[in-house]
Design a protein that fits this description.
Helix content: 40-55%
Bound molecules: nicotinamide-adenine-dinucleotide
Strand order of the largest sheet: 3-2-1-4-5-6-11
Strand content: 15-25%
Largest sheet: 7 strands, parallel
Number of strands: 13
Shape: globular
Number of helices: 11
CATH class of one domain: Alpha Beta
CATH topology of one domain: Rossmann fold
Distance between the termini: 41 Å
Length: 322
C-alpha cells in the first residue's frame, strides 16, 4: 500500500483516479478547492462514492496554499498533481488565472512536497505542449518549445519547473502528457460532451475546420491505469522530469467522433461547420512506445466501447436531473 496525495481529486480524471487507487489498495488523500471553472455540484457527485471509503480522506483546499499542502504530506507520500485550470480556449481570456493556478499552484505543491521530504511525484501535463510544429506522431523527446495557447505554455512551464527542481533536489517526476481524455464524468466544456448534449437535444452539431481534424482520444479508464503505473515507477525513476505520452488506441476524426456518438445515442446528426478557433491544433497523435516500454502501459479501451460507456453515463446523469 502506498499513500497518495491526489490534487484535483473532485475533477473528471481525479475522481476516477481516487476510485482506482482505493481499489488497488492505496491510502488516498484528496485535495480540491472546487474551482468555479464548472459546477461544484458535478464535482461533489464525482466524489460521492469515494468519500464513503475508509482509506480516503478529502480536504477542501487550494493547492496554492503551501502550508495547507505541507500539512497533508509525509516523506513516504507520492504526490499526484492533477489540479489545474484545464482547457485550451478559455486560457486566452482567463490568462492570469491559468498561470496562477497552473504554474504558481504547481510551484506551491512542489515546494510543499520538498519541505515534507517527498521524493516522488506524478504531474498531469498535456499533449498540447507539442504545439503545431512537432511532427506526428508526437514523441516525448521533441523539443516542445512552441506551445500555441497559454494553457499549453502553463503545462510546459510546469514540466520545466519540476525538471529544474528535480535536478537540484533529486525529486523524481513522471510528467504524463494526456491526450484528449474522455469517459464518464467528462468535463462539460469538452467537445465530446458538448456534441453529445447537442445530439441528445436534437440540435445541430458544429465542427471546427472541415471535420477532418484528428484527436488521439484516450479513455479515462486507461488514463488512471497509466497514472498508477507511473506512480509505481517513480520509486526507481531518475531525478527530474521524465515525460510520457498517455494516448489512446488510435486517432479519430471529429466526423467519426460525431457519428460514433450519434450511433450510441440512436440519433441522426445534423452537422454544420465553422472556422478553427485560435489555439486549436489540427491533429494530435501520440507515440505510445515510451509508456509501453518503461511503464508497461497499453491502452485497452477501443473508441466505440469508450463512447458507449460515456453515453450510458450521460443518459443516466441526464435522467437523474429530470
Ligand atoms: N481532460 C483532458 O482531456 C486533459 C488533457 C490533458 C491534460 N489534462 C490535465 O489533467 C488534469 C485533470 O483534468 P480534468 O479534465 O480532470 O479537469 P477537471 O477540471 O475536471 O479537474 C481539475 C480539478 O482541479 C481542481 N482545481 C483547480 N484549481 C485548483 C486549486 N487551485 N486548488 C485545488 N484544486 C483545484 C478543480 O476544482 C477540478 O476538480 C488537469 O491538470 C488537466 O490540465 C486533462
Amino acid at each position: 500500500m502506498t499513500r497518495l496525495l491526489v490534487t484535483g481529486a473532485a475533477g473528471f480524471i481525479g475522481s476516477h483516479l481516487v476510485e482506482a487507487a482505493l481499489a488497488a489498495g492505496h491510502e488516498v488523500v484528496g485535495v480540491d478547492n472546487f474551482d468555479p471553472a464548472y459546477d461544484r455540484a458535478l464535482k461533489e457527485r464525482n466524489l460521492a462514492a469515494a468519500v464513503e471509503h475508509p482509506r480516503f480522506r478529502f480536504h477542501e483546499a487550494d493547492v496554492r496554499d503551501r502550508a495547507a499542502m505541507t500539512a497533508l504530506l509525509d516523506a513516504g507520500t507520492v504526490v499526484i498533481h492533477l489540479a489545474a485550470r484545464a482547457g485550451v480556449r478559455p486560457s486566452f481570456e482567463q490568462l492570469t488565472d491559468y498561470i496562477d493556478i497552473n504554474v504558481n499552484g504547481t510551484a506551491a505543491v512542489a515546494r510543499a512536497a520538498l519541505d515534507a521530504g517527498v521524493s516522488r511525484m506524478v504531474f498531469a501535463s498535456s499533449s498540447s505542449v507539442y504545439g503545431e510544429s512537432t511532427p506526428l506522431p508526437f514523441r516525448e523527446d521533441a523539443p516542445a518549445i512552441a506551445p500555441v495557447s497559454p494553457y499549453a505554455a502553463s503545462k510546459r512551464a510546469g514540466e520545466l519547473l519540476l525538471d529544474a527542481l528535480g535536478a537540484a533536489t533529486g525529486l523524481r517526476v513522471a510528467a504524463l502528457r494526456f491526450f484528449s481524455v474522455y469517459g464518464p464524468r467528462q468535463r462539460p466544456d469538452l467537445a465530446l460532451h458538448t456534441f453529445c448534449r447537442q445530439l441528445a437535444q436534437g440540435e445541430p452539431v458544429t465542427l471546427f475546420g472541415d471535420g477532418s481534424a484528428v484527436r488521439d482520444y484516450t479513455c479515462v479508464a486507461d488514463v488512471v491505469r497509466a497514472v498508477l503505473a507511473a506512480a509505481d515507477w517513480t520509486a526507481t525513476a531518475p531525478a527530474g522530469v521524465t515525460a510520457f505520452n498517455v494516448c489512446g488506441a488510435a486517432p479519430v476524426s471529429l466526423r467519426t467522433l460525431v457519428t460514433t456518438l450519434a450511433g450510441a445515442l440512436g440519433v441522426t446528426p445534423d452537422i454544420r461547420f465553422a472556422p478553427l478557433p485560435a489555439g486549436d491544433v489540427l491533429a494530435t497523435a501520440g507515440d505510445p512506445a515510451r509508456a509501453r516500454t518503461v511503464l508497461g502501459h497499453e491502452p485497452r479501451t477501443n473508441f466505440s466501447e469508450g463512447v458507449a460507456a460515456f453515453v450510458a453515463w450521460f443518459e443516466e446523469a441526464h435522467a437523474e436531473q429530470h
